[in-house]
Amino acid sequence: MAAPKKGRRPAGGQSRPGRALALILIAMVALTGGMFWSGHTTPRLGIDLAGGTSITLKAKAEPGQEDAVNETNMNTAVGIIERRVNGLGVSEAEVQTQGRENIIVNIPRGVNEKQAREQVGTTAQLYFRPVLTYAPSEQPAPDASSSASPKPSASGATADSGKKDEKSATPSSSTPSSSASTQGRALSEALKAPSPTPTASGSATPKSSESPKASGTPSTDPATSALEQKFAALNCLDPKQRAAAGQGVKPADSTVACGKNAIGQWEKYLLGPAEVDGKDVDNAKGVLDQQRGMWIVNMEFTDEGAKKFSKITSKLSQQQEPQNQFAIVLDGEVVSAPSVRTTLSANAEISGSFTQQSAQDLGNILSYGALPLSFDTQSVDTVTAALGGEQLEAGLIAGAIGLALVVLYLVVYYRGLSLIALLSLAVSALLTYVIMALLGPAIGFALNLPAVCGAIVAIGITADSFIVYFERIRDEVREGRSLRPAVERAWPRARRTILVSDFVSFLAAAVLFLVTVGKVQGFAFTLGLTTLLDVVVVFLFTKPLMTLLARTKFYGEGHAWSGLDPKRLGAKPPLRRTRRVSAPVDPKEA
User: Given the DSSP bridges, would you call strands 294-301 and 52-60 parallel, antiparallel or unpaired?
Assistant: First the structure.
């Protein structure tokens, strides 16, 4: 006797819906617990909601280097600016490129705007150049004294080899050669004599016994003559002249620059070719010198930089003042010009009129390197916390209105089925909130206004998935099937439609995220995240819950308020098979 065949499970059937519900419940509890454990119970807000500063920088190429504005240099600049801003103690700043030549820096509320602008906009091109000569700048006119408002800089610096007895702390303003009676002779000697350091062609440094003699003959070299005229005409009290002094000069060329001495007076310098640059600095840090009670910047060189530094200081130590000085030039301005009396190695020190903040800022800039490009600040927009709160409130009101309209439609049209939809929306909203709160500290995700718009749009996408499933169930009921088989038969058809719809939405969000920058990416990210969560919620919550409720009397028997009343849906009577009765055969006809 053959064993009876087991009943086949309906297509798309789910024998254990409680297992899927338990799984999503465990995931919700775990994520919520992780949110409270991390201490970040609210999503991190962007500057348009929480307030902050947005800075737009535009890259500019130096003369003759028009191809320098490229993707590689822009990405390098983004990384350096991000490390500088993070060096201020800001771990939530957003730095990204926009187009081919713009960089957007978004800094949240609580950061000093002026300090941040200096950090992100400073090119930090650092060079160590030998001093050929220098002179005090002209006295300011009565109406021009207030126009010079330079940022604090260091002068009278020392170079440190690690031994106290090898320091030289000779302020540039205290050397006898700075007097007006000797400036003409010093300038003439510096320009006509061989450079005290190797030039681009590798010329040797003259010994101290070969110090150049004064000469009253004017220079015949056009380049030297032009530099001499530029030095003589330079007025460091004029901010425009200070800014333009070293612009467009190659490291291998001599140049002029401005800087402040130890007593805060502007001086102009004639400098030789750069021997060491900022790339040779391995680490720099602003520290407090306990012995002298002043803030200084300690620098450590790389192995290659230490060799260069040792070589240049060895040659400078054999020269007479002022040609035994090297200038530390940052973005075209002399921040220090220490004298050298002995050969130095891997360490150097910049000292002068530093405050704690200026010393730490300079160390921060030098540590993270020079930007490969120069930048102009195009705009600085500040969003107050009050304005951000108003925008957030408006976004939440818009979301509440949209959700209320969806709920009203579901209740009126689907009646009892609206309970399943509302519970599913609540689960989706909870998961979205918790994940956004966790993504803030994890990947730096910030909820901005476009992201709020993405979440509002996602309400419609999530509700659309429920509607697709409910309509498939109703179609099965209209065909005359009872609810339990209708739920299972409708699922495969609805599942395909939901997956295709969500795939298209996620693809659109991914493309939008990749091809856009700035705040629009927040919209795309939120839209993609909520689309993925829609699939999770429909598969692990909506379908299992519908399967369980179909077993209840209220839904299973098609109550008038269940949304599945066969009469209201115009259901066909169930199809029944009938036996065909054969007519009796007349014997006569047979």
Answer: unpaired
